[in-house]
Every structure is written in structure tokens, then in C-alpha cells.
């Protein structure tokens, strides 16, 4: 059960039952005396649990099922949720009565999962163009046909896409239009949706030099730059922390914390007293004890002199740190996305077999300096644009690695970026470069994995793809594998798996996702001859 969040007279939370792939979205009526939901089980007259959406029941009709939005109306009477039944990230929004669970009107089809309530009688949502770029934001009034919805804004610049946000007070909605270097924002007064969008921040070319937090005392007033602030201290040297939805006007900040050795934990931090209260820590089965593991921050120097931070975790009683331990190095370095050193329960399967796990932020290299591993046991892993990283280093220095796993990898860079009809291409020209220009074409050609496969020995390789993937078309990894099979001069294992019932993020069920991890781990263990006789691959 997730930590409940109070909204009006209800507590909302998710519940996961043993053996079920998906969650149940639930609520309970709150007591007027403000008693917390955590004591309800001790009260004989506790309000009953009301299941609003059982995702398990819905998923039975589909091979793939994902709910990526669950939005309750301000008056708690209605719920809008967005579901994807293919993995192609094209959603259908269903609007139901929160009590009777009956649909209140026809679903909104062919939309994104970005949806917010504009008061109790209307919704804002976004749609995609032919290359799956969120380019339009719409106002839908309940009780009307989707065909009559009004388009509030159309972003015609192919380098920009739209995002949708709501203020914690639910009085304002924000529509952000952004490219890789520029963003500008509109706002909508939810009490006057008929007035449409108004400019909050003007369009200014180029990005901010640093992350800045602004406070807006009232709509229409200038933004106030906030400097300074208070810090909450944490135990682990490397960790992941982010705010969780909290209550407007509350002095309590709710946040989630985890590290490479600490399961996800939810805290309430009193910003007046400084008191921090643990509300819940995710249960990890199998006798897990975080004190058995050590998480570290290490630094290595790249060939150009740049210091590269590494997040490291291993089991203290199994790792020798003499260069003989197996190591899985994970890397990703695109879109300013950080691979945060967060906890992952399935990773314990490797750690408890003596693996060291390392995240390179954001470039790898030099990890041998601390004798964590040798190239005979060094394994590398990257997904999506991280798969581009892995494909690139395999071509450059295949001798450094024993095994490599490329998940849904972006490996046919030049061909893809030359085609503006492929999803994500036009919005990525600012990130990767536009290969229609000579300078960028030859630079991208110099590292594109597909274009640099050559007759040489490669390590053992596992490549995966998703048939319905809108971000990296399955043809890219398939083409990469075909070229490797044609040119590589070794007899090492080369496997290609295309998941027919999913997209970019693999299967949707929680146990199905474990199967994907099991495939990756078993591949690595088999290559390293670490599967005991009583275990099967």
C-alpha cells in the first residue's frame, strides 16, 4: 500500500495484492476528526476501502496495459485516467464516476497521457502530430463530443513539444512549450477556462545558465527569484530524492528517498520544526538487510582530463576488490537526464552473487583504476540513448569488455535523424545535430554504431527491441545485429530479442518486468560461467 494522500474528505492510495501484476487505485472516506489512515485498521468502524480502478481486471483484455495518469476532479466526484494497451504511448482517456465507477461519457481517443482537470466540468489534454510530437492542447467540456473540443494552442515549430501541469492549489493550469534550449509558458485560470491561455513567461531563445527556483506570489505579478534554502541531510553518500505530491498551504513537505542500498522510503518533513518522519519503506523480501551493502561515490579521470563521478554498490562480505570481481557498468548520457543512484530490488540478484554495480555519470572510463574489476569480467549495459553509448564503445574498444547488453538502443543515428517523418527526429536536431548539414552529418557518422561496425572481434552481446516502440523503431537494433553478424570475426554469443507485445519500456506487468531483468542477468551470469550446476539458464 502506498502512503495515502488526503484530498478533500478522502485518502487516496495504491494497493498491490500478492500475485497481481498491477495496482488497485483506491480511496477511503476520511474521519472528520482528522485521524490518519494508518490507524484505520485499529478502528472497528473504519470506513470501507473503495476500489476505483482495478488495473488487473482491465489488463486481462490486453497483452500490454499501462495507466499513466489517474486524476481526481477537485470535488472528488470524477476520475480521468489515461491507458495505453499497446506500448506505443498513444493513450485513451476514460472519465468515470468515482463512486459508481460508470463512464460518464465516451473516452477521449488518440491523445497523450498529459491530462488535467480544469475545474469540475472540463479537462485539458494534449494530442500528437504524425511524428508523435505533442503539438496541440485542447479544452474538453464534459458532456460534449471530442470533435467539438477547442484547441487552445498549436505549436507549429517542429523542434518544440507541449507539456501540461497544474498548480497545487488547482486554480491554475500551465502549458509549457519547449525545445532542447528554449521554453515558454502559458497559464489558464480554471475558474474561467473560457478565457483561454495567457502568457506567463515569454519565449526567450536559449536556456538558463543554471537551475533557478521562482515564486509567483500571484498571477500577473513578476516572478521572484528564490536563493538559498534549507537542506535535509541524508545518510548515504549517493542517493535519489524527489518531492511527492503534497498538500497546498501545508508546512509539511513529503518526499521519497532511496539509494543503491536503501529501498524507496517516504518521509514527511516539517519545514517549520525541521522534524523528518518516516511514513513507509518498501518491503524487500528474502531477508534483505541494507547493512550488508556498501554504496560509494568514486571519481575517475577521463582521457581529456574530465573528472567522471561514479556511483558504486556491492555486497561487503562477497566482494574482494582485487580486480577479480565481476562488474556491471551502466551508462546513459543524453537529454540532460541523470541516472539517479536509486534502489532496484531485482539488482540484488547480481549483488548477492558477488557483482559490483556501477553507474557512470555521464561518461564511463577509468573504472579499472580502483581495481574493482578486470576486462575479463567487465560487463556494460545501456538503454535507448544509453544503448547508443554502448554501441559506440563496442566499436571503439571491444577489447575492454566481456559482455554488453543494449536495451532498445538508438544505434542508427544518421539514417534516423535524416528522416523528419520518424517520431522524435525534428525535436532532437538541437540535441544531436541536424545531419542535413554537412558538418553534423560527418560528425554523427563518425560515432553512429551501425555505421561503424567493422571486421573485428566483439564481446558477447545481447540486444533487445520492442515491436511497438515509438522512440527507437525496432528496425534500428535489428539492423545493428544483422551488421554485426555479417562482419564480426569472433564466435562470441550475439542474441537479439524483439518483444512483440510492448514498446520502449518493455512489458507492463510488475512480474513481467522482472522477467526482462532475469533475461539480462542470466545472460551475464552464463557468459561469466557463474550459473551453478543446480540452477538453469
Automatic annotation (TrEMBL):
Q: Which Gene Ontology molecular function entries are recorded, alphabetically?
A: serine-type endopeptidase activity
Q: Name one Pfam family in it.
A: Peptidase_S9_N
EC number of this enzyme: 3.4.21.-
Could you say which enzyme class this protein belongs to?
Answer: hydrolase
List the record's Gene Ontology CC terms alphabetically. Answer: cytosol
Q: Which InterPro entries match?
A: AB_hydrolase_fold, Pept_S9A_N, Peptidase_S9_cat, Peptidase_S9A, Serine_Peptidase_S9A
Q: Where is the Peptidase S9 prolyl oligopeptidase catalytic domain?
A: 369-529
Spell out where the chain crosses the membrane. none
Q: Where is the Peptidase S9A N-terminal domain?
A: 1-206
Alphabetized UniProt keyword annotations: Hydrolase, Protease, Serine protease
A Gene Ontology biological process term: proteolysis
Which family does this protein fall into? Belongs to the peptidase S9A family.
Q: What does this protein do?
A: Serine peptidase whose precise substrate specificity remains unclear. Does not cleave peptides after a arginine or lysine residue. Regulates trans-Golgi network morphology and sorting by regulating the membrane binding of the AP-1 complex. May play a role in the regulation of synaptic vesicle exocytosis.
**How is this protein named in the record?**
Prolyl endopeptidase
